[in-house]
Specification:
10 helices, about 280 residues, alpha+beta, 2 domains, Four Helix Bundle (Hemerythrin (Met), subunit A), about 10% strand, Nonspecific Lipid-transfer Protein, Chain A
Length: about 280
């Protein structure tokens, strides 16, 4: 296998089936299950559902309806300021939504999810991005990457809910495959502080039905991500598709992250992957 350029990942038609599958799941949950903890920090099932409602309605308001977002309550002068702002925005809605019943939250998500799918399906593939993908280190991004970032939010949060309530994952691997294809785009930014000789490469080999092979190559301008693998990689990292999404979406940390990967070659070149995150943290 040789290195290949990465093609855009088009997620526009994936929102509807994933959102519809979640609505079907939520309609069948007993009330007491909504208060179960999830792997999303301190959030319960109801909190994760509320967050998805917020994300969808925010996107429709700012993108479809062209409403100017309210300004931050303080200057955003650093990455830490941005993370604090986003966390505060998320928490404010989740706290307010604890007043809503499971039925109301499900009705809201059904409407929000359908509206979001309608909007993204109406966009041309080269539509401009609304926001840069910050966890990839981008101030401005390609439109498909911005939309793909929104899809990874929907997919990983609905999977958090499925894990919490003991429901099986969506059976079609294309949803997780698309999530990983988008999430891997953040790796060059995660590796930005690691110096290496030009040409050194790190292969990330993800096993499973949604897996694939990606390679980070150190070039003069920094680390670049490619598909495939070279014959002489300095480091090879293997992990399952399930471990890959959990790592990149902050569900594996420390020793759990280390235990989830198998490393061959220069272990120092694998360390940034263990801390890489494809969300705002």
């Amino acid at each position: 296998m040789s290195l290949t350029p990465l093609e855009p990942t088009d997620t526009r038609v994936l929102f509807r089936p994933v959102a519809s599958g979640l609505v079907t799941l939520l309609r069948g949950l007993p009330p007491e299950v909504w208060d179960r903890p999830t792997i999303a920090g301190t959030w319960t099932v109801r909190d994760v559902v509320a967050h998805l409602v917020d994300l969808a309605f925010r996107r429709l308001s700012f993108d479809r309806d062209r409403m100017t977002p309210p300004p931050p309550p303080y200057p955003i002068a650093s990455d830490a300021d941005f993370v604090r702002f986003i966390n505060g925005l998320n928490a404010a809605w989740v706290d307010a939504a604890r007043r809503f019943s499971p039925r109301v939250l499900t009705d809201l998500f059904e409407k929000a999810g359908a509206g979001l799918a309608d909007w993204f399906e109406s966009l041309p593939p080269d539509a401009p991005a609304l926001f840069g993908v910050s966890w990839a280190g981008e101030q401005t991004s390609a439109g498909w990457f911005d939309v793909g970032r929104e899809f990874t939010e929907l997919w990983h949060h609905q999977q958090q809910i499925r894990i919490a309530v003991g429901a099986p994952p969506l059976p079609d691997p294309r949803y997780l495959r698309a999530t990983l294809a988008i999430a891997m785009r953040g790796l060059p930014h995660a590796y930005r502080d690691l110096t290496a000789a030009p040409g050194r490469s790190v292969v990330i080999d993800v096993d499973g039905p949604a897996g694939g092979i990606w390679t980070l190559v150190r070039e003069e301008a920094g680390w670049m991500l490619h598909g495939g693998e070279p014959a002489d990689a300095a480091t090879r990292i293997q992990l399952s598709d399930d471990a890959a999404w959990m790592l990149l979406f902050n569900a594996l940390r420390g020793h759990e992250a280390e235990a989830a990967v198998r490393i061959e070659g220069d272990a120092a070149l694998a360390r940034p992957l263990l801390k890489a995150r494809s969300i705002v943290v």
